Amino acid sequence: MTRIATADGTAPSVPSQGRRSRAHGPAGAGRPSSVRARRRIGVTGRRVARSEWTKIISLRSTVWTLLAAFVMTVGLAVVFAVTLAGRWDDMSPADRADHDLTSLTLLGVNLAQLAIGVLGVLVVSGEYSTGMIRATLSAVPRRLPVLWAKSAVFGLLAFALMLVTALVAFLVGQAILSTKGIDLSLADPGAFRGVVGAAFYVTAIGLLGLGLGALLRSTPGAIAGLFGLVLVIPMVVSFLPDSLDGLERYLPSMAGNAVMRALPDPDVLSPGGGFLTLLLYVAVTLAAAAVGLRRRDA
Amino acid sequence: MIEARGLTKRYGEKVAVEDLSFTARPGVVTGFLGPNGAGKSTTMRMILGLDRPTRGEVRVNGLRYQDMTDPLCQVGALLEARAVHTGRSARNHLLALAQTHGISARRVDEVIGLAGLTDVAGRRVGGFSLGMGQRLGIASALLGDPATIILDEPVNGLDPEGIRWIRNLLSQLATEGRTVFLSSHLMSEMALVATHLVVVGRGRLIAQTSVADFIAAASPNTVRVRSPQAIPLREALAGHGVTITATGEDTLEITGRTNEEIGEAARACGIALYELTRHQVSLEDAFMDLTRDAVEYHATNAPAPAGASAGRRSAAHAGVAA
Ligand SMILES: Nc1ncnc2c1ncn2[C@@H]1O[C@H](COP(=O)(O)OP(=O)(O)OP(=O)(O)O)[C@@H](O)[C@H]1O
Ligand SMILES: [Mg+2]
Hints:
By secondary structure, chain A is an all-alpha fold. Helices cover 68% and strands 0% of the residues of chain A. The two termini of chain B are 32 Å apart.
């Protein structure tokens, strides 16, 4: 050991039972100026976020998953755009009007959401399956900062990547459609909002996965739950009696559809409604995860 | 300093730890002993705030773990199961932990060197051998330069060289004035590092004592004597507090007399002795005796009061050697 611990390592401050996690929090006693000189060591929200950033970018699976999300989204934009461009001349005017050329180039996010969703699950469940969570929670015994930091770091990373991805998909797709002279630009009504909406939708699904991972603590369980929610339940709901048709629009996938499209659709929520619905899903899941994290043994 | 008071943990019907109170002091290595399922790991998880006690509490340096603003600098821990993501490199793992506290990357490299992991720090932990994994656990325990160190079965699966390394490290950490608390069911191993013991069985405290007192009290020392005149010798040695058992035609097992007393008594009577050996129980035997039926023993039956003697380490060594 190069450093010697004081026999009574009790010197560091005792927080006053408060919620504050800042190292320089506790009320009372003024500290010697030497303390101000070097940065005090201790847990802060910002530091936990930094740690989570290190964690997420130091896993190969993150890189692969993000790459997969990008390739799938852009790839499908090409496929759909080429297909539509090929059929365009044979389509009736009504048929043509039916196609939302913004969301068409963004449809690939329905595949990307699976990759980002799994990544979200793994951000938490990967720590439970490997035991890392015990190290994490030993370092941050208040626990909740870990969940918030994971959500923020993962959410920002997923959103940034998906924003770029959706932009590229849109631009590439529209470039293909320009061969028929039917391409849109980002300045067209709803187009830019659709691009941002697509990134937001995938991020929301990722955060939903993260929350489920924290709630269920098991990778297969959380993935099954997430895929059930975005893939299986919509199918089940479509078989329900017509009287329940109004419910369908509140499913995550349909709310996603709402935020991505430029043309309004009576069967789908407004973009704002879709945005709020997705936000609510994420908020409720993360809140439940937070309660579980506080209450349950690690 | 670790102080547990009335610590109790239930998992449903199962009582893992029951009304456990003990103290682990700074400057010494305190061994936490108990057979499988005694509740050692559960207790350690409660110290780290990972499991919530059903009743009671445990404090480290007067603080509850949840209330610490810099827990890594207060308590370093190596838990039973590996607590590392297998997909990350050793260095990134330590760096992520350090960053939660604003501990510098320089310190990360320092503990990597300390644990002898410099050559493999960039490799993914998934490919680590058991010993390398333990070393990484030790490195993360030392990251915050904590005054208290908790290790759950640190030598499990280590080769002799690794065991010696941990043993020396722990002794050194205690010498530096830190509280070192380590669990094991390898009694012989414990005898080489620990000076104090907290013994548990079925979740309850059986004894809190020094290693030397533990051995002394767990089973009285007997002297084995072989003599062609066993019967007159027996008469010469009889007295209050002395138990003599004939274990063979010419052998006696004597309790309550020292080797010196027996030798002198034999000389005074002109009796020849062929053998005079003190049989001292090993820590292993003492432990087996105490925990044979854990529920029969309670804290009040403790062989000796806690912290009776701090400096009798050499006696412990002698005990094990015997
Ligand atoms: N999460 C849990 N849920 C249910 N029972 C548990 C849990 N953790 C521990 N137990 C039970 O509590 C008891 C104490 O377990 P613990 O792991 O603390 O023992 P230990 O002293 O560490 O044993 P070992 O020497 O085998 O490591 C055991 O009977 C165990 O089965
Ligand atoms: Mg154990």
